[in-house]
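User: Before I run my own analysis I want an independent prediction to cross-check against. Here's the chain; please return only the structure tokens and, at the end, one sentence I can use as a sanity check.
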Amino acid sequence: MLLGTSHTKYPAQAMPAADAFRDRPFKYRDDDEKPHFVDHSKRVTPGHRAAVARHARKSAIAFMEEQGARAAQLGGVAAGLVSVSTSCKEPENASFSELLAEAETVEIDKNIARITRLRKSLGVAAKCLHNLGDRNQRVWMLTLTYAGSNRQWHARHISQFLDGLRKWHYSRTGSKKVRYVWAAELQERGVIHYHVICWLDHALTPPKPDRPWRNRDGWQPPMWRHGMSNRLESTAPVAYIMKYASKIESKNIGGFPRGARIHGCGGLDVVGRGIRRWVMWPAYVQGNADCSERWRPAKGGGYENAATGEVLHAEFAPAGGSFTRFVRVRRHPRLIEAGGPFMWLRS
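Assistant: Structure tokens:
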């Protein structure tokens, strides 16, 4: 028994997804299939990585044998899969690399995946926010630039700016709810800066972020106190923010300060939040959920329906300790033909 651990039992062929391990160290015992999550901070050792590879190998063998048996019943081999039982080697004697060559595997670049999430989130959020405004809404593009280097950067700076924007909005309208999206970008000199789009009703004009502004209590400090800013009115806000999202590439995403968020949004209504949430889910969740449901990452991997407790286990398991290559260990049926966020009705 490991001290300071919690235990979760998984059904047959269930393999915790990589997201469950990324921030929580773990251990496996050879005599027990249950993962033991270590609650305290600890570096993942090569032994931990080898344990993940062994468990993924067992899951891949079981999944491919099941698919092979099913294909044999249907008179052929399942599309995209090869049964291990047809190999000249017994599954237990085959190396993991040979199994991966026959299994359905995917390679994931973490930087590219991060950029994809950014573009999905910003695109959907910007469209939903733009449609929420009235006829006389004004859309403003604000640029926030540091005067110095990344040494002056802190994660709370963008949050402080948004807090100031809400405070100003409250002083003009009586509401703290502001519709906005923002994206981070690296300048040519390698310093992070932010592009913010805000949608304001009643034909409001925001103060320039690096200038003081005034309310009933008198003059207030600038919303952005770390350098320069720019303010322009926009007629095509979605195209503007996606232009800067397209500039972020996997080769320079590593240049952002450690711990920096690179995008965000606020002010969505219930429908908009549901659409954005649906777009960010993996395909096997999209095919079994609609925008009104609240699925969240489940303990041990996969997703759980917050209302019903239904769990969809992850379809891919990490094939090794680097969490860049994954092998399919199960396949969920798609109850919904998910052609987009508006395909909500179950069949």
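Sanity check: The longest strand covers residues 138-146.
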